[in-house]
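Chapter summary example.
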Amino acid sequence: MKIPANPSALVPSPVRPAAWRRRLCFLLLAPCSLLLTSCNFLPLPQADNVRNFTLEGAAGPAPVADSVTVRPVQVPGHLHGREMAVRVAAHEVVYLDDVRWTEPLDSALTRVLRSRLQSVGGGATVTVEVSRFELVRNEGNSVQLAAAFTILPAGGGKAAAQRAEFQSSPRTWDGKDPGVLVGLLHDAAAELGDAIAAAAR
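The structure predicted for these 201 residues follows.
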């Protein structure tokens, strides 16, 4: 074995501080680079196309002291959800996923009728049972409200109760803006309130 003339040649050269710093920065930045690269593969957020509607309209007339009492409106089971119901056949209903009510329809209808009837005096009690409150696509996009209501005079027994059936006037939606459809449904509910008011006076 040949021994070099300079013994210091057998000692490894020390790593310069600058080289260590470069290596350390590489080790620290490599995971960050991988993380940023992976972010490019995440799905982009999708736009929310759901529209939420209330049934309420303009404020009703000023209330009177002995206004009628409107009990909570009863609606059929297929109207309990927040999605808007659309009747497509005599025994078939579908729901619009992108058109929803902000509150249950029974609560919304109760509020509309109470606002409409708060100026009617006499202290009678009104109960309303709704059987249909929806767009009927298989009948030319007609908007229909069908209900039965009972008016019990103040201090009167069940024998004095007045019961009547109600069917809203013909209304047709053009199939474009759901906001217009909601307006037509509100008008039908207001018409029901006016029919009850006329019968209670």
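To summarize the output: The first helix runs from residue 17 to 39.
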